[in-house]
């Protein structure tokens, strides 16, 4: 994880945010391009890190892994006009890569697609919707009979070097700045010098600034004025 985070970061950045879709919202019998076409306004995964999500999708670099889509989910439009650029791709991995370039233009993106799904057999908790099949794919409508336990699910996970981290890091800096270090004598008696603490605090603020874009920079100026 540490080496992957280092690979995704440059220009002074050191931290990545985690995203996931559990399960990945694929309809039973539909291909990955079919699913991606339904999410061209917003990505089908959610932020796991304690950051404030942004309305506009943006990141500097990312690594995305999708697992649980087998051959039946590969595009099959031979001899026909592809309904979308995603359907024109030769593989699910190419379709996912094209989707990432479309949703995050200019970002460095890597993607991998694995056929093996994530197992959800006991003792995995069964907190899934009745709209899921045993293989974790979505149904158009609830089944007539009580559905069996979900045995596996398709999952997407992503690590992003993203501007959403700017707010998290800056908030941490502000919280630490409010500490009255004179009340933490035992902390500094362990060998931490006051100057080292202040230097680390400034490095944290500098790190948060590495994740700024134009909008975050304007917001940072407003916050600096209020300091």
From TrEMBL:
GO terms for biological process: mitochondrion organization. GO terms for cellular component: mitochondrion. InterPro entries: DML1/Misato. It comes from the Eukaryota. This is MSTO1 protein.
């Amino acid at each position: 994880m540490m080496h992957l985070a280092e690979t995704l970061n440059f220009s002074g950045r050191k931290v990545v945010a985690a995203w996931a879709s559990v399960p990945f919202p694929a309809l039973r019998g539909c291909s990955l391009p079919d699913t991606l076409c339904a999410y061209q306004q917003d990505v089908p995964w959610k932020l796991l890190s304690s950051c404030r999500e942004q309305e506009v999708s943006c990141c500097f670099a990312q690594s995305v892994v999708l697992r649980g889509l087998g051959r039946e989910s590969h595009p099959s439009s031979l001899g026909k006009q592809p309904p979308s650029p995603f359907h024109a791709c030769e593989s699910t991995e190419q379709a996912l890569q094209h989707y990432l370039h479309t949703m995050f233009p200019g970002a460095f993106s890597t993607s991998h697609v694995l056929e093996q799904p994530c197992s959800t057999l006991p003792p995995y908790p069964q907190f899934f919707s009745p709209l899921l099949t045993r293989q974790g794919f979505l149904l158009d409508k609830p089944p007539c009979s009580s559905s069996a336990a979900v045995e596996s699910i398709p999952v997407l996970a992503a690590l992003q070097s993203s501007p959403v981290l700017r707010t998290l890091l800056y908030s941490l800096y502000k919280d630490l700045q409010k500490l009255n270090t004179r009340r933490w004598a035992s902390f500094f008696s362990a060998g931490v010098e006051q100057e080292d603490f202040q230097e680390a605090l400034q490095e944290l603020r500098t790190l948060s600034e590495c994740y700024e874009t134009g909008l975050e920079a304007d917001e940072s100026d407003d916050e600096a004025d209020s300091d």
